[in-house]
Amino acid sequence: MSRGVNEETGNRDVPRPNVVLLSLLLVTLVAWSGLDAVSVAPNRIVPGQGHAAWEAAGWPGFLISLVPMLAVLALAWRPDRRRLRWALGLVVAMLAALPAWLALAAARLVEADLPQARLGVGAGVWVALFLLLLALIELRTRLALSRTLGGSLLLVPLASFAAWLTFDLAPLALRQEFLARRDGFIAAIVEHLLLVGAAVGVSLVLGVALALAMRRWARCRMLGFAVLNFLQTIPSLALFGLLLAPLAWLGAHVEWLAALGVSGIGAAPALLALVGYSLLPMVRNTFVALDEVDPGVIDAARGMGMSRGQVFRQVRLPLAAPVILEGIRITTVQAIGLTAVAALIGAGGLGTFIFQGLGQAAMDMVLLGALPILVMALIADALLGALTDVTRQGEAT
After folding, report:
1. What is the DSSP letter of 260?
2. Do 160 and 250 fall into the same domain?
3. How many angstroms separate the CA atoms of 84 and 89, rounded?
4. Which of 221, 278, 344, 390 lies 20 to 30 angstroms, CA to CA, from 147?
5. How much is the pTM?
């Protein structure tokens, strides 16, 4: 923890305030107090009426909700390691308490004789949720917690949300949208995961092959990176559109492609576009990882009588694995987000709910598609990041 030093006495002063944490909690406090926390509508068609946090929970509940925010502000003012741990616990507790607060708002604002009434989550709650997650990341970084431990902290608010959603959040608009589209929602998640898995798998195989070719031939390296960088400059929607006409022609004139279901719309153009976008981070990380292995280690392996193949499999590849895994992490998170756009060309996935919701001005349907994508990206980032850390630790030992 950074501390100032008194020039006259040479003694260390108290820790300096954590400006990042102070800023995040101050903005959270302002957003929670000033923005609408929830909205209530008698049905899906009528626009909801916004309610501030003090209206939703009453003045006692509102004032109680301010206590942990003020406590974190006080702890961030003199942030030694013990106080940062307390601040971390309070931030996790606030995240876990948000569903309970929504349940209290539902009990106070939603009338029991209106079964179609819906409780929408307002800007105040979304801003508070976003800023508290940033505060969680800041505290994890300051305390030097591992990715695994930092990711496991999110299990507490997720478990709280799942529990409250099951029992006491029946009027929540997002829950009602899910219940009305449960079968389609599950099918969309499966389609989304299949597209992401296929794109990452194909790009991994092609990426390793291209990286090996680039290491062998310098001309291939220059041309390959030029083409891959060019693909990254094309907007995703434009790339999906450019593939429609050639794939439609191929599907109509090549029998075996038609038998595979290749056409101008659907999964084929979506998969090709996703692979195109995924290749640059995969190739770049694989190339750098293989190229930067210590030459002394390679010479030692050859001196032990290893063949070229043995050197690659047993020495170069294991040493390059952490950076290659980092490329897989970046590619996976990127593909999870880009797959949402593939719904515009009939590829399915969670993007279907996003674009249907935008067309119907139904923000809860948009959230039904967007929130699982966010959760998938966070889970993939945490798991692959933890695997990368484990690989680095194994390499160090």
Report:
1. T
2. no
3. 9
4. 278
5. 0.82
